[in-house]
Every structure is written in structure tokens, then in C-alpha cells.
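The instructor's notes for this session suggest beginning with a concrete chain rather than abstract definitions. Hand out the sequence below and ask the class to guess, before any prediction is shown, which regions might be ordered.
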Amino acid sequence: MQYRPSTVVPRDWDRVKDFARQAVLDSGPSNATVGLRMLSVVTHYILWAVNEERAPLNRTELFHPTLLGRYIRMRSPNKQASLHKTLHSLLFRVASAVADVDHNRKNRGRISHGVVPYTAAELAEIESWATARKNAVHRRYAKTFLALAGGAGLQSVECAHVRGRDIVRTATGYSVRVTGRYPRIVPIQTEWATYIDDVIDSFEADRHVLFPSVADDTRPRTLTWFCVGEHPAPFAQRLRDTWVLSQLPVLPLGVLMQAAGMPDIQTLRRYLPRVAPADLTDWDAVLRQPSAHMRPTALDRERATSHRKLRRDIEGQNRPLAPHDLANTALRRADVALHLDQTAVPAGSAQSSVPRTAEHVHTERCSIAALEADWMPKRFRAEVPRNKRRSASRYMPAAAPDSATFTELREQLQERRDKQDGGDAR
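After discussion, reveal the predicted structure:
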């Protein structure tokens, strides 16, 4: 396939041409015209990924959906534009063939390209890059960027919005106040604090520490171009990856996610393959009693105190009782029911020996048989007492205390009915 891009530097094209041609051939274009169009799009994408994002020439990492989506949004932010749809179709067609990438976003993870932390030798070479900048202003920008990205794990966008007042010096070292989408305060690691020592006197409280004369919307892009180049030029994502991997073995996940500005656990997944397995014998005491090795917050301490109190109360209630304790408990409950139960005999009535306002004072224990008092009812609940007044009837008025008997009233009623029947017959 004869193709040579006219807008690409020959040195860059010679480095990626074999990789790009083989990727397009493996995707199986239908004809030469489609193949040349795919090769043009893939070439410009590969050069952007290698030069701007420092992605290696590896199919799995280079054609990852996250990196592809970032390039497409950079070229065409409008999803409805024809350029956006064309780039998405061609790039994901090649990615599906060479890296087994699914077009459906729901079936793809959020893991970006591989984690490649810096080694100690590479970090030393990056320091030489900072000291070799062309003037004092650029050297100050380089040291500030290394301290923020390498010492606090900030993203390049977060670094571009840090002001002079956001870098605070305390008795234990420096801390940076991060604004924006995930506001937080992150301590700067001691190994990187020397960069801040060299430049902190030049900071102004209300001005940005990096490219203060550049507009806010273009400052992150200016910072990206400032770090463009071959190694030892720093790559912000690799500096952040190095910081995260240095904190991952020692910090709890909640603290690490808060300090790194990670919204959820999915962002942390890309670092998990780099975590070395630990020896559980060194963590025996922590695994057996984790609460003894934690520093709870004030709210957690209050919750723990109430939980211990509730647990002691429950354990006291569930404690096995001795025989004499069981007897005393039964007597106490029966005694309380005797004096406080108002359903059988209301307190203060004639049948009750306990007035309603009297306090219960009982000093001597009695037997169960003695609790059966003489006033307790000897009838069924459905039986009506004899001394209870009957309710008024609909057919005759309620009888007064000195009225006739029920037999006389019935005879009067029958006589009245007979007269009414006789009158009707006549």
C-alpha cells in the first residue's frame, strides 16, 4: 500500500508507518480507496497518541476505547457532525479488528491505557530537564509542575488552575489546595518539596503559578505543549501514576481516592494489576483486630460508644439467670402487673386496694398463691354482671327506678296492640 502523508514530518512517519499499515491491512478494507482513507485517519491518530499521550506502539494500549474517544472528541466535539461520525466509524473498525474492541460503550470498561510509572533513574533525568529550561521563568514553571504532578498527584488540568494562595506551608511541609471538580487539600511529598522551596518566593497570592498571563481555557493546552518532547520531558499521567502507586500500598482506599480526586472505584481499577501481593503474616494483628489500628473520626467514635453501650445492655438481658433470679424476676413481673394493670380492676375503684395516685411500695416478697386476691373476677368475660343497667330500647322508654315491672309493661303493650287491631277491623 503506497501512502505517504504530506502533513507529517518524515521522521515521525518512518517511526509509525509499518505499525499503521499492518493495522489497516488486518482490518480488511473493502478496496484501495477505503484502505487509503483508513490509513490516513489511523496514521494521524497514532502520531497524536504517541506524541501527545505518550502511548506505546502496542495494539492493546494504543487502540483502547478511552484513548480513541479522547482523540475523536478533540478533533470534533460535536457528536452530530459528519467528521465525528466518520472518525468514530473508521477508528473503531480498525480497533475492533486488531484489539477486539466493542463498539458498544456499555460493554467497555473505563480503564485507560496501561500504567507505566517512572523509575528512579527516569525521575532523575526529568529533574535535569527542569534545570535545562531556556530561561528562569520556564525553569520555575517546570519545577512547579513537577512538584504538583509528581509530589501531589494532580492532573495537568488541576495543575493549570492552582494559584499562589493555594500552596500552603505548614510545620510538616507543603500542601496544595485543589479547586474544580474534586476540591481537596493534598500534602506534597517530601522528596518533591525542594522544588517548591526554590520557587515559592516568586508566587503571588491571586495569580496562577503556571502561565498566569494565559487565559483559563487555554492554559491546560499551553501546559501540555510546554511538556511536549521525547524523554526526559515529563508526562503528567505517568507522574500521577507514579504518585498513586507509591501511596496505594500504605493508604486506605478511601483516603487514597479522596486525595487523588477519584470519583469511584472504577478509576482505581487500572492500578490494581500493578499492586504486588503482600505477605499476610505481616498483617496478622491488623486482620485480627482492625479497629485497634484505625483512627476513627469524631462521628465514628460516637457511634462506636453507643454501639458498645447497646451491646452491653443486650448481653445483660441475654445473660443466663440462676434459679433464684428466675423466681425473683417472675415475682417482680407479677407484682407489677398486679398493681399497674388497669384492664381488670381500675386503680382507685371500690374493688381495688391500690389508689390511682399511690406509689407502689413493696418490701416483702410473697408467694405466687398469695397473689390470687379475693377481688379477682370469677366469671367469663362474655357474662354480663347483674348490677349493670340495660341499654334503652327502641320500643319503650327506659324504666325509672319506681316504674312498673317488666310483666306489667308487656301487658300494657299487648292491650294497646289489641285495641289498634280492633279499630282497624271496624
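Then share the key points. The two ends are 130 Å apart (CA to CA). Residues 106-112, 356-365, 399-403 have pLDDT under 50 and may be disordered.
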